[in-house]
């Protein structure tokens, strides 16, 4: 029986088996070497991360102790995905020159506005007080003129006008003596004329006040004889009644 022979150039199966057995160990060694290199890179990365975390902790000395991460043996930190995350707190920054200048400008503006508002309120209060003083002074001037100026030809009408512009004690006094005074003037035919020289407001509120009045009076006799004028200093008490200032009391100081 003829023996089987391998054709020239054909691969030897036994040789292939030996080659495969020789290459397999080399592949395992390379894989182990690759794994070692990967572990070394991982260790290096973990160590680097630990150093960075330590540097962050040194930059924030006031941070809470629970937020600090200390560098140590790289083996203490497990895989990178399991490394703890440190929350970095915002640092306080001192305001710069521009911010300080802006704050100072706002402070000056606020103070100026506050001063302007205060001055405006003071001005309005002063204007109201001046207006009220002028109102009381005018009422006192008019009241004294009506009260002391009596014409013998229409004495009753003059006294009635004075009565209409009075209130309180003065009104009660005119009601008691007004008729008799009118008859006396009509019988004597002596008229009285009053000139108010000056007024000075002593005190006022919204509804009452006291005004000092300086006045002069002269009497007109039927024979037109000249008589010296008399000077008067009068304290007039005024009260607001029905929206109108009326004389409530009159005191002759001189």
Automatic annotation (TrEMBL):
<feature type="compositionally biased region" description="Basic and acidic residues">
    <location>
        <begin position="34"/>
        <end position="44"/>
    </location>
</feature>
<dbReference type="GO" id="GO:0016020">
    <property type="term" value="C:membrane"/>
</dbReference>
<keyword id="KW-0472">Membrane</keyword>
<protein>
    <recommendedName>
        <fullName>VirB8 protein</fullName>
    </recommendedName>
</protein>
<feature type="region of interest" description="Disordered">
    <location>
        <begin position="1"/>
        <end position="44"/>
    </location>
</feature>
């Amino acid at each position: 029986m003829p023996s089987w022979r391998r054709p020239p150039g054909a691969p030897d199966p036994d040789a292939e088996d030996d080659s495969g057995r020789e290459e397999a160990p080399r592949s395992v060694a390379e894989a182990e070497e690759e794994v070692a290199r990967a572990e070394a890179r991982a260790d290096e990365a973990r160590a680097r991360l630990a150093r960075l975390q330590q540097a962050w902790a040194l930059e924030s000395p006031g941070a809470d102790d629970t937020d600090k991460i200390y560098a140590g043996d790289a083996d203490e930190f497990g895989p990178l995905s399991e490394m703890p995350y440190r929350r970095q707190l915002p640092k306080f920054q001192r305001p710069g020159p521009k911010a300080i200048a802006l704050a100072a400008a706002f402070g000056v503006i606020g103070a100026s506005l506050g001063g302007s508002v205060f001055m405006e309120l003071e001005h309005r209060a002063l204007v109201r007080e001046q207006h009220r003083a002028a109102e009381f002074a005018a009422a006192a001037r008019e009241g004294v003129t009506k009260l002391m100026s009596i014409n013998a030809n229409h004495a009753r009408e003059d006294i009635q006008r004075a009565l209409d512009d009075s209130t309180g004690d003065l009104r009660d006094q005119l009601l008691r003596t007004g008729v008799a005074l009118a008859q006396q003037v009509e019988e004597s035919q002596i008229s009285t004329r009053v000139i108010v020289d000056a007024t000075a407001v002593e005190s006022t509120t919204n509804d009452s006040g006291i005004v000092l009045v300086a006045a002069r009076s002269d009497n007109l006799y039927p024979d037109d004889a000249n008589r010296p004028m008399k000077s008067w200093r009068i304290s007039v008490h005024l009260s607001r009644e029905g929206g109108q200032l009326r004389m409530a009391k009159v005191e002759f100081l001189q």
